[in-house]
Design brief:
- The protein has 4 domains: 109 residues, no CATH class; 85 residues; 112 residues, no CATH class; 298 residues, ABC transporter involved in vitamin B12 uptake, BtuC, CATH 1.10.3470.
- The chain has a 5-stranded antiparallel β-sheet with strand order 4-3-2-1-5.
- It is built from 27 helices and 12 strands.
- The chain is flat, with a radius of gyration of 40 Å.
- The N terminus and C terminus are likely disordered.
């Protein structure tokens, strides 16, 4: 029985040995294996400081297996036979067994124990270097997505090897978009890595009209300067210009420290250190032959210390007079320090031109922002201009009509999932809802408070609070989404600096449409004629058969309806909450008052003025928007002191109110 067991054990051992033996002989003479053997020692050590030549050798070898080797190495799937030094690909079967493959042919070499193999585990730094090398292969990939990914990788972490790879594929790239990106990247890398100054200068000058941030990032390191000093200003090509000690560019202390570091002057000593040195060298009642009692001034102590230095008792130190004399005897200047002077001068010239263009485009971008904000304020204020101008009613609940319009749009989107259709439906529906709410408010409250501005203000303020609480009870306190259609996503970008979102463009267009609509209603319809008559002289209008009470009701409803449409527009980019109306009520009143009460053109000018002023103050003080709003209100108050009737004064009842 024991003999049988021994026989079975021997057969199992033979089976294990046979199953572990390679099924296919490894090709040790393959070119890719030979290349790996040349760099085998540094590959095995996997040190980021030394691995570069091995990775470059694989990437530049032109061997078809090189890309696979780099990819499998990066994925930690390459192993080395510790006995033979040969490299293989391997997959772990279990904790002690691996299946090996030939690096040249990919042939299955069999399943073996992992005892005699070492797994190559490149760290993140080495994997990044391998990834950079793989970019060269990806640039020639037939899949455009892979080539895009390669260019993205170069943009993130470029090195000198990528310059040649980009040049190699620049003329053969068939995709126009990719060709533009490759050309741009090639020029950027030429600035950084090309050896010939002429090439770098030509690449620099090609970006003279480019406002890209990446261009400035490439040029700024070339114009880095260092402060230097000499007895006369040198006539070297890398000298940028002279600096005066004590200016913002160079303090007096830094200038003198530079003199000391260059060996042009002796170091200074602090007063405390000087005092300690004098005390340490007191001999009787004297220091270096000077009476201690006479050392009652800084000048006397400087003389005593200088005498000690002359005797060799202390280290020499400069006095204030020495510092002034040394600074006056030398010239301080800046010189380029990071590259050849011709390259730095070309980079500085292009950077100066770019910075000037950037300033102009930033002004244009600020103007677009101001215009966009003005259109929002115009939409928010146009309804208030109608009610305030025609009726003289200070409606503190106007912001809540904006809020009601925004919530109307939100409710519509709950039932109509198509965002484009929902917005088309929401605009007239918001007008109808807020028109009805405005008419109800005028009939129940406002009509009893005409010519009583204080009571009207208090009543509408109370209504404002009540409407906010009602919205909280219905919709909750969390912000609700009012989603813009997909075709309003993104921005219209003119360059890297000037852009404006499509939503704001839509709001601007909507503001223009309302301006045109209001003008037509007021100047081309009977309602507009009656409204203007009541505005100018309500008693005379009544004697002509016009019902001022009805006109007031319709006008208030019309102004409230426009506020509802403004709420839909504003809700597309702002948060929809019960308090959203309060964010616009102050600006709306400022817009109406500054422009001229009751005048649509004045409202337009007022919105433009308020929007431009707010954006300008925010640009001057970007870190504190609350302070910017405070300054804007103060400016408006001062403006009203000089022009109390606004930019365009209206004659009639509104002007008299």
């Amino acid at each position: 029985m024991s003999v049988f067991r021994n026989l079975c054990a021997a057969l199992v051992s033979v089976f294990v040995v046979l199953s572990a033996a390679p099924l296919t002989a490894q090709d040790a003479t393959a070119p890719i294996q030979q290349l790996l053997q040349v760099h085998g020692d540094i590959i095995a050590k996997s040190s980021r400081r030394t691995i570069g030549p091995a990775i470059d050798a694989l990437a530049d070898s032109g061997l078809p297996e090189a890309q696979t080797v780099l990819e499998r190495w990066q994925a930690k799937e390459m192993w080395q036979n510790e006995d033979t030094g040969l490299f293989v690909f391997a997959e772990e079967i279990d904790r002690r067994t691996i299946r090996t493959f030939d690096v040249a042919s990919g042939a299955d070499l069999g399943t073996v124990p992992d005892d005699g193999f070492k797994q190559l585990k490149p760290n993140s730094g080495i994997r990044g270097m391998i990834g950079a090398a793989l970019v060269r292969f990806q640039l020639n990939d037939p899949n455009p997505v892979a080539r895009h990914a390669a260019l993205n990788a170069i943009e993130r972490d470029a090195d000198a090897s990528h310059l040649g790879a980009l040049r190699a594929v620049r003329d053969t790239e068939a995709d126009p978009e990719l060709r533009v990106r490759i050309d741009r990247l090639e020029r950027l890398l030429t600035i950084q890595f090309a050896e010939a100054d002429a090439e770098r200068i030509a690449a620099i000058e090609s970006f003279a009209d480019d406002l890209g941030v990446d261009v400035r990032a490439a040029l700024n390191p070339l114009v880095v300067t260092a402060v230097d000093v000499a007895t006369v200003l040198p006539d070297d090509p890398d000298v940028v210009g002279q600096i005066v000690p004590g200016s913002d560019d160079l303090s007096t202390a830094s200038a003198y420290d530079l003199l000391v570091s260059k060996g042009f002057a002796v170091g200074r000593i602090s007063r405390d250190a000087q005092k300690a040195a004098l005390i340490a060298n007191i001999d009787g009642d004297q220091v270096a032959g000077i009476k201690v009692a006479s050392l009652d001034s800084e000048t006397a102590r400087d003389l005593a210390y200088a005498a000690l230095a002359a005797q060799g008792s202390v280290e020499p130190a400069a006095t204030d007079a020495d510092v002034d004399a040394a600074l006056a005897a030398h010239v301080f200047f800046e010189r380029y320090r990071s590259t050849a002077p011709a390259v730095a001068i070309a980079a500085q010239a292009v950077l100066t031109g770019i910075e000037n263009k950037v300033a102009v485009n930033q002004t244009i971008d600020l103007g677009l922002d101001a215009l966009s904000l003005a259109s929002i304020y115009f939409l928010a204020a146009i309804g208030l201009a109608i009610t305030f101008g025609v009726m003289g009613v200070i409606n503190m609940a106007h912001g809540e009509f904006i809020m009601m319009g925004a919530y109307t749009g939100y409710v519509v989107q709950l039932f109509i999932p198509d965002y484009t259709v929902s917005i088309i439906v929401a605009i007239p529906l918001a007008f109808a809802v807020t028109f009805g709410a405005g008419v109800a408010m005028e009939r129940t409250v406002i009509r009893w408070l005409y010519h009583r501005p204080l009571e009207t203000l208090l009543a509408t303020f109370g209504i404002s609070i009540a409407l906010q609480q009602l919205a909280k009870n219905i919709f909750g306190t969390q912000a609700r989404p009012l989603t813009a259609p997909g075709w309003l996503d993104g921005s219209l970008a003119f360059n890297d600096i000037v852009s404006i979102s499509y939503i704001r463009i839509a709001i601007f267009v909507l503001a223009l449409l309302f301006l045109a609509l209001f003008w037509v209603v007021m100047n081309r319809t009977r309602l507009g004629l009656e409204v203007r008559a009541v505005t100018q002289n309500p008693r005379m209008a009544a004697s002509m058969g016009i019902n001022p009470d009805k006109i007031n009701m319709l006008t208030f409803g019309f102004g409230s309806g426009i506020a509802g449409i403004a709420g839909v527009a504003i809700g597309l980019y702002a948060k929809v909450t019960s308090e959203m109306g309060s964010d616009y009520i102050v600006q709306s009143f400022m817009t109406v008052v500054v422009g001229g009460v009751g005048n649509i053109w004045g409202t337009l000018l007022g919105a433009t003025m308020v929007g431009t002023l707010q954006k300008g103050i925010e640009w001057l003080n970007p870190s504190n928007t609350l302070a910017a709003q405070t300054y804007m209100i103060l400016f408006i108050i001062l403006f009203i002191q000089f022009r109390p009737k606004g930019i365009i004064a209206l004659k009639g009842r509104a002007a008299e109110a």
